[in-house]
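Q: What would this chain look like folded?
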Amino acid sequence: MECRVGHSGDVIEAACDCLVAGVDTPTLRILAGSSAAEGSESDELRRWLGDALAELSLIFFPVGSRAGADEAVRIMARRLLDRTITARALTSWAYGFITRDGAPLAAGLIDLEDAYEIVEAVVHDGQPYPGDAAARVDADVVAEARRLLGGTAEHH
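A: My prediction, written as structure tokens:
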């Protein structure tokens, strides 16, 4: 969970939610009973997470994998299109947690974070950028999110 899409407490809560909903596997029971205490969660959760996901026919992405980073970028892009995060939150996340080397897929989002920084901090030819400059970057971020999802996302 290197990209921080979720945290250890989220994994334990999700396992509990599955059990409450009637989705019951041996490894989900182990995860639901795991401790979210600082320092111990990584080893214990990693030990069982791959098995739990396999039992649920879900994909496990190893820590630090490019496939995992790419999927994290797509999940966050979906969150933007679902309006659960802002365009700026998406680019800030990409800049802070994903690198071009780790996920070249995120390069456009990282560039757009740079565009926000320019709009907010730089004066162009002695004049501030127009008031709608940030809105134009927002629109570019939405377009990039759609591109990342293959242009198939039909969100408003």
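The beta strands are 123-124, 127-128.
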